[in-house]
Amino acid sequence: MTWVLKKFAWLFTKTFGLSGAEAVAAVACPFIGQGENCILIKPFVKDFTDSEFHQALTSGFATIAGSVFLAYVSLGVPPRDLLTSSIMSIPASIALSKTMMPEVEEPITRGASAAEALAKGGREDDSANLLHSFSNGAWFGLKVAGLIFCNVLVVVSMLAAVNGLLAWIGQFWGISRAGTNSLSIELIGGYILYPVTFLLGVPPADILPVSRLIATKIVANEFVAYLNYSTQVAADPTFISERAQLITRYALCGFGNIASGGIQLGIMTALAPNKGPNIVRLIPRALLTGILATLSTAAVAGILGDST
What we know:
Elements: H1 2-16, H2 20-32, H3 36-39, H4 42-45, H5 50-62, H6 66-74, H7 79-100, H8 114-123, H9 130-172, H10 185-192, H11 194-199, H12 207-219, H13 222-235, H14 242-251, H15 258-271, H16 276-304
Helix pairs in contact: 1-2, 2-5, 2-7, 2-8, 5-7, 5-16, 7-16, 9-15, 10-12, 12-13, 12-14, 14-16, 15-16
């Protein structure tokens, strides 16, 4: 894996002009996931520029990790689509991130090779001995896990509270009924994303169900969206066309959801506590950029791909 990361990071350093550290963070996302990609270059994170932070966050939101790959395959999602989408999302996330937030500062790893950044990130340790190293690692892991848990709990609880309020309003005013069609952020998001889904090339008859699946992915997470998709396909293989199914599988393939913002916030603030306000400010923009990067792969798949 180290060899693969070095080669891909070198490629994106040369083609996109990235710093060595952010190139590693970008290419590591499909392998180890959001947030953890920056642990590989931990010594440099505290000195990241805003553009580097934005790129690292965007890459995490735009792809999925190898740790969840088999879970989605078990739901019936073709592995080819998952792999292709994640690979395509790397250059897409870099291009969109640098468009949204160009580099105006001087990264400390500018001109350094990705291999050097990866090597230094892996060996820098101030531990006195092996036992001390284990202790430091355990404490860092506990701190990261605690921050992730607390941030995700807050975000998910807030979404549940808002959905509960919307469901009550919908029933009180007769707008919707209790159950799957109750008024919710996902339902509203489905209608908001209607024009976006149309631009992806989804056939007109399939736009609303696909947009609702994309909204579910953004509000809940991609696992819930893939589960809903697989359940509907199993119940009725023709509920949307094969072309719409192909675009849907690509559009859902990313960690671009609100709860992931809590995960990224927890990990990044643990790695760079001095940049906490910057990270909080960048997360909403990076989340939007990551979602757009994933959707761009869906658009390309709709143009070039087939459903077989």
